[in-house]
Design a protein that fits this description.
It is built from 16 helices and 23 strands. By secondary structure, the protein is of the alpha/beta class. It folds into 2 domains: 286 residues, Aldehyde Dehydrogenase, Chain A, domain 1; 183 residues, Aldehyde Dehydrogenase, Chain A, domain 2 (3-Layer(aba) Sandwich), CATH 3.40.309. A 7-stranded mixed beta sheet has the order 15-16-17-14-13-19-20, sandwiched between helices. Bound molecules: nicotinamide-adenine-dinucleotide. The site of nicotinamide-adenine-dinucleotide has 28 residues, from α7 and α8.
Length: 508
């Protein structure tokens, strides 16, 4: 792929032990804009040495205790101070996200940036309500004692994230870890390190975190992340990425028995009932699948439409999908931007060809977006109909703007088909009958179910997958608890020697 290096290309650095540094060996790599395929920045091409340095800094900071031992109120107040600065300086981040991650700017400015900042605030606030100390009931077995449970930070937490939501995911790893008193090493995806570095630059500007508590390593080699996964000095790994990589990461983390949470892939089923409000269900389906070019783990990519409304529904869906404006993510006119890189672009178009070969019909899209010009990874939003159940397009995550549509007419059968997947990240139901929709939701084996909407996550609601979509949860108290250990403390209540009959097992 041809790239153009402009003399104004920005040079980014990693953040290790409170300093902005290059890679240990000085190597750099080019960071591209997926809309133009031009080089927009260079970043350090880190290696295992860089990750080791960052982990050592995080370890020192954790062991020194300046952050971990702070009373929660103080820790949260510091984070609230940081949020004020993030609000002041985050204006430009939407453009960075548009240019680096291909997030259309109308989305990045309304969703990515405000959500990321709000997440930081909310994690600090919710950490105040965690049960940090819990007295246990009085007990006289074997003799009277006072027992309590304290909750403590886990230690050094590594966060490894994919390229689709670089700013939001950086925050999803940093905020809960910091809020609960841990040290963090974040590794952004090679394609999209820039917004995470901007975020950390802003946090650094406040000077409010102790040195070494927050670190970011970058690079285009998997060694950077592999070192974090394997390091005995990393206590917890929070990984977001594909199920295929998740399997490798889980195996590589096993020798050090670290705590691992995994947020992996999905092929989420969206069930349209015959009584659905079509104005809501058609547009909602489009938002559910084509927002951010379908590059969202919980996108509703498997659509089941009831026979009674199938033709009307699909006609409207296809017409509206075909009319979406695809173009440069930095333009406010673009509704759909580019996919992240040439590799994804080819994989998506190959998946469409395979779907065709397996009997699906391409109702719209399946090609390079007309009018997109020669540069940029633009794919026309694609609707596949008559997708054979069991085919690749019906079962595998494509992670691009591709919707596969199937029919249904029997409720228990469609629920069974929806659940027939290795994934269990999300699902959805479109119906005017709320009680009936909740009943379907109860039967879907997924971590999230939306009724008459899609994508709506919030910082208090747990997010994560059933089955091979992951392990553990992010957000809310459910997510914060993943960043803590619990400790039982037993306090003797002056039990006389003669009453300590258990000792007599050895000594009596
Ligand atoms: P990926 O699994 O290829 O990479 C994710 C991250 O892991 C990147 O930072 C990558 O550099 C790193 N990595 C790759 N191999 C590694 C290894 N052996 N050891 C350590 N780190 C390694 O995923 P991707 O292509 O960047 O992202 C798309 C995938 O992410 C999709 O499958 C999508 O569903 C999934 N995803 C899941 C969620 C969720 O919350 N469940 C959210 C977004 C994306």
């Amino acid at each position: 792929m041809a790239t153009t290096v402009s003399p104004e290309v920005a040079t980014y650095q990693q953040y290790i032990d409170g300093e902005w540094v290059g890679a240990a060996d000085g190597a750099t790599y080019e960071v591209l804009n997926p809309s133009t395929e031009e080089v927009m920045a260079t970043a350090p091409a880190g290696s295992r040495a860089d990750s080791r340095r960052a982990v050592a800094a995080a370890r020192r900071a954790f062991d020194a205790g300046e952050w971990r031992l702070k009373p929660q109120l103080q820790r949260s107040q510091i984070m609230f101070e940081i949020v004020k600065h993030l609000e002041d300086v985050s204006d430009g981040w939407a453009l960075v996200e548009a240019q680096n991650a291909g997030a259309v700017i109308r989305k990045a400015s309304v969703i990515d940036v405000p959500y990321a900042v709000e997440w930081f605030r909310s994690m600090a606030e919710q950490a105040l309500h965690l049960q940090w100390y819990e007295p246990l009931p009085w007990i006289d077995m074997p003799y009277v004692s006072w027992n309590f449970v304290s909750r403590e930070p886990v230690g050094v937490c590594a966060g490894i994230v994919p390229w689709n939501y670089p700013l939001v995911f950086a925050m999803w790893k940093i905020a809960p870890a910091l809020a609960t008193g841990n040290s963090v090493v974040l590794k952004p995806a090679p394609q999209t390190p820039l917004s995470a570095l901007e975020l950390v630059r802003a946090i650094d500007e406040t000077g409010l975190l102790p040195k070494g508590v927050l670190n970011v390593v970058t690079g285009d080699s998997i060694e950077v992340g592999a070192e974090l996964v394997e390091s005995p000095d990393v206590d917890k790994l929070a990984f977001t990425g594909s199920t295929a990589t998740g399997r490798k990461v889980l195996a590589a983390a096993a020798p050090t028995i670290k705590k691992v949470t995994l947020e992996l892939g999905g092929k989420s089923a969206s069930i349209v009932c015959p009584d659905a409000d079509l104005d809501i269900a058609v547009d909602g389906t489009l938002v559910g699948v084509f927002l951010h070019q379908g590059q969202m783990c919980e996108s509703g990519t498997r659509l089941f439409v009831h026979d009674d409304i199938y033709d009307r529904f699909v006609d409207r869906l296809v017409d509206t999908a075909a009319a979406l404006t695809v173009g440069d993510a930095a333009s406010f006119d673009s509704q759909v931007g580019p996919v992240i890189d040439g590799r994804q672009y080819r994989m998506i178009l190959d998946a469409v060809s395979r779907a065709r070969d397996e009997g699906a019909v391409v109702a719209t899209g399946g090609v390079r977006a007309p009018g997109a010009g020669e540069r940029g990874h633009f794919i026309q939003p694609t609707v596949l109909v008559d997708v054979p159940p069991g085919s690749h397009a019906a079962t595998e995550e494509i992670f691009g703007p591709v919707l596969s549509v199937q029919r249904w007419n029997d409720l228990s059968e469609v629920v069974e088909r929806a659940n027939r997947s290795i994934y269990g990240l999300a699902g959805g139901v479109w119906s005017r009958d709320t009680r009936g929709a909740i009943e379907i939701a109860r039967q879907l084996r997924t971590g999230t179910v939306w009724i008459n909407d899609w994508h709506l996550l919030n910082p208090q609601a747990p997010f994560g997958g059933f089955k091979q979509s992951g392990i553990g949860r992010e957000h809310g108290v459910y997510g914060l608890r993943e960043y803590t250990e619990v400790k039982h403390v037993y306090v003797d209540q002056n039990v006389p020697r003669r009453d300590r009959y258990l000792w007599d097992v050895l000594l009596g």
